[in-house]
Amino acid sequence: MALDAETFDALIDTVQRFVAQRLRPLESAVEAADAIPADIVAEMRGLGLYGLSIAEEYGGLGLTMAEECRVAIELGRTTPAFRSTFGTNVGIGSQGLVMAGTPEQKAKWLPRIASGEIVTSFALTEPDVGSDSGAVKTRAVRDGAVYKLTGTKRYITNADKADLFTVMARTGDDAGARGVSAFLVPRDSAGLSVGEPEKKMGQKGAKVADVNFDDVAVPVENRLGDEGEGFKIAMRVLDRGRLHISAVCVGVAERLIADCVAYATTRMQFGKPIAEHQLIQAMIADSKTEALAARALTLETAAAKDAGRDVVMESAASKYFASEMVGRVADRAVQIFGGAGYIEDYGIERLYRDVRLFRIYEGTSQIQQLIIARETVKRGG
Length: 381
Description:
It is a single chain. This protein is an alpha+beta fold. It is built from twelve helices and ten strands. The strands form three sheets. The chain has a four-stranded mixed beta sheet. A four-stranded antiparallel beta sheet has the order 2-3-7-6, with no helix packed on it. It has a two-stranded antiparallel sheet with strand order 9-10. Helix 1 runs parallel beside helix 4 (65-75) and helix 4 crosses helix 8 (230-264).
């Protein structure tokens, strides 16, 4: 159920002020420390950001997809690592439970996920399994009242601080997606270990790491859905997550455009602000047009999802266009800033590195192209 207009407007205003007054001043410090300050995490919990997508009955804000995208756009106006701090709780880390969990599972986990007491993570990718996510090799062998999980997951977002993992593992002999099941696995399970966080190109402060399962006993009641439904659950989760990421891309693009305009109207060359030079204007115009298009596509698709329509193709198209778009906007921003765009002090080079990830995670651009083509053919055009 959507919030009433006054309440939602107040939420947006609160998020805007939080981003402008608390998060943006800390961007350089987060980059240098590769960590989000504890007091900021506490404020995020207090604002309800960990429970944006979780129903009010479980302590969340219960936002619609369209409302969530509006909030994500605002959060995109700062370093993406801040959003990633609670992003798995809002998206891929919790939505399998929201979509396929039993009443008992939801009652046990969702209130603490919504409050931020529990941080969630989504464990699908493996050393030899990325885009071909139906080929997972981690195995879950049933042994009476438990499954024994063995395998390794790679590049798992928030693994360093996650308390609960949604894990995709093979439970049957069926090849491909039909043999994959989903499990809720607490971090303190015997045999579960988390590797050292990887050193990344960008999005410093948001950590990814390996998660290893060595004969981890998982109770049968922690399985999400029936055996063999894991891949279907994962795809539904990713379809939704792609819209959220699309909205973040829009927010980052709008931030970059605003920074470019502020710089170009004060930077003088050839006796006038560079904003008055036509080739600079052309880059600003291209960036603004593409950002507006991505915003419209994302919000239209979110509204269609809220209306109960099938948006598999549209979600893929949104993520594909928005993630590619923000990469082009970031590249133009470096060009508009010139030498300053290559220097750390201005923050443009940091965002240039940060946005590169959007074209890779939650389905690469090439995977989105395959989905778009497949769904378009299925629909007959």
